[in-house]
Amino acid sequence: MAALTINVSTVNPLGDRVFVKISPSEEKTAGGILLPDTAKEKPQVGEVVAVGPGKVDNNGNRTPLEVKVGDKVLYSKYAGTDIKLGGEDYVLLSEKDILASISE
């Protein structure tokens, strides 16, 4: 069996899927207390790095996604599939799991 090398540029989501790079979690609380790894919550914010072509409706027409590469998004806490590539954390999720687009 041949070895498969996966990197961010080779991931092409299908349908209405979105590939998001997870933003790092907070190391300190607002009061300045350092958090151990076991107390950190899973981040819910990330940057879109790849999007699928969109979902096909009942008439065979493709509906484009509302998010695009480079958008910062807020997504559901337990949504998607966590993936680790090259030491970075990513999540592959459906567009319906994205709650909001964040503007800075």
Automatic annotation (TrEMBL):
Protein keywords: Chaperone, Cytoplasm
SUPFAM superfamilies: GroES-like
Record localization: Cytoplasm
Predominant cellular place of this UniProt entry's protein: cytoplasm
Subunit structure: Heptamer of 7 subunits arranged in a ring. Interacts with the chaperonin GroEL.
Family assignment from sequence similarity: Belongs to the GroES chaperonin family.
Known function: Together with the chaperonin GroEL, plays an essential role in assisting protein folding. The GroEL-GroES system forms a nano-cage that allows encapsulation of the non-native substrate proteins and provides a physical environment optimized to promote and accelerate protein folding. GroES binds to the apical surface of the GroEL ring, thereby capping the opening of the GroEL channel.
PANTHER family: 10 KDA HEAT SHOCK PROTEIN, CO-CHAPERONIN GROES
Alphabetized HAMAP family for the sequence: CH10
NCBIfam families the record matches: PRK00364.1-2 (NF001527), PRK00364.1-6 (NF001530), PRK00364.2-2 (NF001531), PRK00364.2-4 (NF001533), PRK00364.2-5 (NF001534)
Protein's name according to its UniProt entry: Co-chaperonin GroES
Gene of this entry: groES
